[in-house]
Amino acid sequence: MFKTFSSLTKFGIVIFVLLAGLAGYATGYQIENAFDWKHLITFILGLYLLSSGSLALNQVQEYKLDQKMPRTQSRPIASGKIKPAAGFILAVAMIFCGINLLHDLSATAGYLSVVSIALYNGLYTYVWKPKWIFAAVPGAIPGALPVTIGYAVNDSQIFNSESIYLFLIMFLWQMPHFWTLAIRYKEDYRLGGIPTLPTALGTQKTLFHVGLYTFCYAGVAIASPFFLTTSWVFAAVVFPFAFMLLKEFFRLYRSEGKQRWFAFFMWTNVSMLVFLFVPVLDKWSFLFIGRV
Asked: What is the DSSP string of 135-156?
């Protein structure tokens, strides 16, 4: 039962969402404020329900498409383990509860939650993804909002440099992440009739776009001192990860996407967490070792 539920809500993706949200939460938290465990737990629960409900609703919306692709045929609704109506009721209930919990903590966080659902389960699922090969670009906006929601819970000024940095990191990360998967599962997307870069333009041109966004992504991380107050510790950690990320991309590019795709994919994912959490550690390091 748990396996079916975790598959419906894409628990692995939700973990990434929660980690990103926590990075935003910790960055937006004001040092002078007293810590409140209830506030943190409510945030985690709210974001968990929101993201799990959104991902479950997406499976309800796309279960016929999932049935066409070998990679997704075993998903709970596509395989018939869960009825679409049951999945819909559960998804909507989770989304409703998640939005309410987050709105109780911060009106801005609540509004961002609604925007996230509207963009992902609305525009992305019904308009961008079925019709546009570059759907991943606008689709990355709702994908990046969890970190902004986390920030907004503690600071409603979401257009300051700290919040913009966090959003840009999570936004730019998604294109290399998704298009690398799209190269790996090119045939699946072709069978599903989904217009992606690899199926429409080919692997080589897709790698060009992967590289473009990878350089922008690494560039924002390296330029973080313009967004954040950082110390030498930040540079000591971020620069090596940015270097290894670019190194793995060039290896992937030279092999024309045939080798080391998983190594690049993992460096992309791990670097995202590093680029989000090192500023958090830098901000709060004084609690343990004093400001360095």
From this structure: THHHHHHHHHHHHHHHHHHH-S
What are the pLDDT digits (tens) for 221-254? 998 888 877 776 677 888 899 999 999 999 999 9
Instruction: Find how far residue 14's CA is from the centre of its chain.
Output: 9
Q: Is residue 144 located within the same domain as residue 185?
A: no
Answer whether 170's CB lies under 8 Å from 124's CB: no
- Residue 65: partners with Cβ closer than 8 Å, 6 or more residues away: 72, 192, 193, 194
**32 pLDDT higher than 80:** no
Residue whose entry in the numeric block shows the structure tokens 């998967």: 181
145 and 123 in one domain?
yes
pTM as predicted: 0.91
As a whole number of angstroms, the distance between CA 2 and CA 79 comes to: 16
Which CATH number belongs to the domain containing residue 24 in this structure? 1.10.357.140
Number of domains in the chain: 2
Polymer length of the chain: 292
Angle at 44 (CA atoms; ends 223, 41), nearest 5 degrees: 120
Helices (H), 62-202: 63-66, 84-105, 107-117, 129-131, 136-154, 161-184, 186-192, 197-201
Q: Which domain holds residue 107?
A: 1-158
| Residue keyed to tokens 């629960």 | 45
Whether 163 maps to a domain, the answer reads no
175 shares its domain with 108: no
The phi-psi region of residue 257 (left if phi > 0; otherwise alpha if psi is between -120 and 50; otherwise beta) is: left
Q: Is residue 215 part of a domain?
A: yes
Distance CA 149, CA 20 (A): 10
User: Distance between CA atoms of 248 and 4, rounded to whole angstroms?
Assistant: 35
Mean pLDDT calculated for residue range 104-120: 97
